[in-house]
């Protein structure tokens, strides 16, 4: 019995060390404000490799602000708190640096880049990352082989590669393009901001399939969504509710169902 106790004690100590070592993203007391308006009021969140976290909440609750701050994409005049990624404080690092180190953010409203060919754009983005990791650039032939395989996964045809980035893309195509970017760039931490909004059911299933394919025990995904419907196809490990700039409730996948049924007001 004593031996057994001993063993368990060591197990729990080791687990604590292990867990600490392997937190991929650690957000501590993150606050953001614009013109005296507080948008985030102390968000805490830990994400480990292999986990899928859903962040849900009403419009205006601060979801995109949180996503932007993790990716370093928006400068809010007043922010405080700390964001740590793979053990490093990244609170003040540039969006480019974060992207090169494996953080990916898909936009709620993807930007159009007229005159820039989609294939070229993706190849350059991938090569920038490869250079940063001291790897050789991918050549044109290998890249075409790679991208053609990934296109099938998001159900886009090859003619799409010749078009300018997001130029004249339908809502569904833009969202598929975001997932395609993720599949090509292979980020370790992917943040998908309302990738499910405005999609019909077939497109939604395709997107969910792409995300599911992407899940791996050394990658983490944060799904930001207003609705439960994506979470039916991509089942998260954890669900957090953001309300008025704070995470007011966290739970497992069943919390999403509860929100679908009861809405958000019971949490106020
Ligand atoms: P969500 O993604 O949950 O809908 P957002 O993070 O986009 O919420 O916005 C949260 C709140 O902060 C909203 O009231 C929004 O109008 C406000 N907000 C976000 N960014 C800015 C900004 N740059 N300037 C002023 N207000 C902003
Ligand atoms: Mg938003």
Key terms:
single chain; binds magnesium ion; alpha/beta; six-stranded mixed beta sheet; 12 strands
Set down the secondary structure blueprint:
Layout: H1 2-21, E1 25-34, E2 37-47, E3 52-56, H2 63-71, E4 78-85, E5 88-89, H3 95-100, E6 103-106, E7 113-117, H4 118-132, H5 140-154, E8 164-165, H6 171-185, E9 189-193, H7 201-214, E10 220-225, H8 229-233, E11 238-243, E12 246-251, H9 254-262
Parallel strand pairs: 3-10, 3-11, 6-9, 9-10
Antiparallel strand pairs: 1-2, 1-4, 4-5, 7-8, 11-12
The structure holds adenosine-5'-diphosphate (ADP) and magnesium ion.
| Count of runs of 4 or more consecutive helical residues | 9
- List unreliable stretches of 5+ residues: none
* Helix content estimate: 40-55%
Radius of gyration: 20 Å
Ions, cofactors, ligands: which are bound?
adenosine-5'-diphosphate, magnesium ion
What is the structural class? Answer: alpha/beta
Termini gap: 48 Å
What is the string of helix and strand elements? HEEEHEEHEEHHEHEHEHEEH
Q: Note the overall shape.
A: globular
Q: Beta fraction of the residues?
A: 25-35%
- The spatial strand order of the largest sheet comes to 6-9-10-3-11-12
Overall number of strands: 12
Rounded mean pLDDT score: 89
Largest sheet: 6 strands, mixed
Protein described:
The protein has 268 residues and is of the alpha/beta class. Helix 6 packs parallel to helix 7 (201-214). The protein contains 9 helices and 12 strands. The protein has helices spanning 2-21, 63-71, 95-100, 118-132, 140-154, 171-185, 201-214, 229-233, 254-262; strands at residues 25-34, 37-47, 52-56, 78-85, 88-89, 103-106, 113-117, 164-165, 189-193, 220-225, 238-243, 246-251. The mean pLDDT is 89. The N and C termini lie far apart (48 Å). It binds adenosine-5'-diphosphate and magnesium ion. The site of adenosine-5'-diphosphate has 10 residues, from helix 2. Adenosine-5'-diphosphate binds next to helix 2.
């Amino acid at each position: 019995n004593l031996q057994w106790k001993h063993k368990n004690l060591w197990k729990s100590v080791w687990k604590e060390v292990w867990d600490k070592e392997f937190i991929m993203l650690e957000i501590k007391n993150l606050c953001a404000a614009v013109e005296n308006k507080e948008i985030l009021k102390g968000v805490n969140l830990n994400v480990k490799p292999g986990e899928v976290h859903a962040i849900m909440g009403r419009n205006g609750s601060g979801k995109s602000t949180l996503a932007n701050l993790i990716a370093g994409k928006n400068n809010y005049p007043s922010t405080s708190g700390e964001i740590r990624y793979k053990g490093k404080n990244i609170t003040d690092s540039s969006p480019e640096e974060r992207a090169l180190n494996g953080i990916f953010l898909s936009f709620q409203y993807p930007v159009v880049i007229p005159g820039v060919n989609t294939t070229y754009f993706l190849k350059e983005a991938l090569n920038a990352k490869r250079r940063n990791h001291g790897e050789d650039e991918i050549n044109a032939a290998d890249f075409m082989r790679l991208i053609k395989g990934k296109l099938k996964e998001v159900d886009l045809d090859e003619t799409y590669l010749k078009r300018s980035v997001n130029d004249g893309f339908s809502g569904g195509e833009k969202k598929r393009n975001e997932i395609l970017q993720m599949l090509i760039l292979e980020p370790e931490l992917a943040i998908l901001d309302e990738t499910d909004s405005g999609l019909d059911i077939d497109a939604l299933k395709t997107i969910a399939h792409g995300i599911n394919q992407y899940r791996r025990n050394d990658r983490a995904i944060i799904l930001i969504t207003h609705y439960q419907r994506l979470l039916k196809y991509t089942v998260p490990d954890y669900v957090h509710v953001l309300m008025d700039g704070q995470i007011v409730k966290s739970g497992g996948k069943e919390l999403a169902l509860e929100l679908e049924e009861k809405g958000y007001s019971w949490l106020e």
